[in-house]
Amino acid sequence: xxxxxxxxxxxxxxxxxxxxxxxxxxxxxxxxxxxxxxxxxxxxxxxxxxxxxxxxxxxxxxxxxxxxxxxxxxxxxxxxxxxxxxxxxxxxxxxxxxxxxxxxxxxxxxxxxxxxxxxxxxxxxxxxxxxxxxxxxxxxxxxxxxxxxxxxxxxxxxxxxxxxxxxxxxxxxxxxxxxxxxxxxxxxxxxxxxxxxxxxxxxxxxxxxxxxxxxxxxxxxxxxxxxxxxxxxxxxxxxxxxxxxxxxxxxxxxxxxxxxxxxxxxxxxxxxxxxxxxxxxxxxxxxxxxxxxxxxxxxxxxxxxxxxxxxxxxxxxxxxxxxxxxxxxxxxxxxxxxxxxxx
Amino acid sequence: xxxxxxxxxxxxxxxxxxxxxxxxxxxxxxxxxxxxxxxxxxxxxxxxxxxxxxxxxxxxxxxxxxxxxxxxxxxxxxxxxxxxxxxxxxxxxxxxxxxxxxxxxxxxxxxxxxxxxxxxxxxxxxxxxxxxxxxxxxxxxxxxxxxxxxxxxxxxxxxxxxxxxxxxxxxxxxxxxxxxxxxxxxxxxxxxxxxxxxxxxxxxxxxxxxxxxxxxxxxxxxxxxxxxxxxxxxxxx
Lengths: 343, 237
Ligand SMILES: Nc1ncnc2c1ncn2[C@@H]1O[C@H](COP(=O)(O)OP(=O)(O)O)[C@@H](O)[C@H]1O
Ligand SMILES: [Mg+2]
Hints:
The complex is a heterodimer. Chain A is built from 12 helices and 14 strands. By secondary structure, chain A is α/β, with parallel strands linked by helices.
């Protein structure tokens, strides 16, 4: 759906050059919800804005739906943009127009006949649940309602791609969830690919299929949301994942010295489990099957999209051979093991 | 005391105006002339000033019709013409006015310098109104594939309309002042009345009556502008 090749963007701010994107290459598949996460100033907005050429790339090319968007002339670019919807953090609705006319706006731009356009607006109002607000001005709407109008407006010309620049960042958690649910519905029912950026790992966790992590203008990690959550590869990703799943083991546990009796050792491990195994008593059967004691130091279970996702810090006490077999047993059942301390 | 004043004052005023009925008539004619001059030149100055203001904004660096040359040239013309004092502008324009209207005296002739003097002023007013619009709105329109013309007609002007309405009132009020100046060199309206009948004949009654009418006129225009702007804005609230 989107192919980004060696995208570099340099801003010239007075005397200074700001490198906002540094040789970024990635692809977004048709029909997926792709999230880009990064800290403020990392270059996320620049990246999505390059996709519809609101920002001209300094180098590199972008192909959207088979069309090299970076090579189009002004006129063709305008036509191409009609098929790329965009929603914004601050909604950007026209205060001079009612909700109905705001959704009408892109249809006017595209020159859709009025009758047809009005029908389309009506059905979009139903999709976003704002039929009763059609004749109201944006200033009378709540943030969540404004974003719904923004979404309806972005969908007006039946785009194949929806870009979202921090669309939920100005909303409270509950409203955020309802907007994300709406985006998910749109993605499924209308088969619209969504490229969203956010600084909130919660958003990624909630709806994204794949995620890319941007740090300091560079793409540092890209992968399935599950993989990034269970084993983040870079410090930036780890801190993002840590922000919603506490993966930190308290210092005092890490350095607690265990009184050993002869050959026994204590090994501290982190066990991550995804999906169905989260519901099975694997740990307890391991303890029963092998001669190991297991102290659960801490643990949590959360959901990533619709899949259970858990994290356990275990202190295993027993002979080294037993512990190795126990861990192998866990590994065979699809659990991910990370040794934190061994003595 | 109040009762005495309450009856005596209107009675005095009535007899006074009967004795000076020529003044009432002259005031009425002059007021109409002033309103007429101001309305036509406000209209004229917007016909030219509005597009110039739009071009000034749109040709700025990074804007929808970015064009450094046009922006700089237009900006300088606006600045230069704005810095010429109106009274001098009036005199400089005499040949032009005469060429356009055939004379440089009278109400119709005054409209030419009034309009021309107000155009750069209007352009700057419009420019500042348009600059109040958040860039995000323009960007949203661009992201939908809008061209520059659509951005201007569907975003810039409608979004800035409340502010533009206030600008119209400011322009008209300024033009009331300018029209009085034009009146002194024979432009007609309240200025001519105040100068020729009042100042030159030492008639302070005429002077003060025109001042009162001018105050009412200016107040009225400001109110009209406020109401208009509030109405446009209120619909959106
Ligand atoms: N129009 C611009 N002019 C100059 N610098 C910019 C501009 N837009 C963004 N930047 C800079 O580029 C970097 C990336 O910005 P941005 O893409 O907005 O980051 P993010 O959306 O991740 O917060 C920042 O350092 C920012 O200051
Ligand atoms: Mg941003």
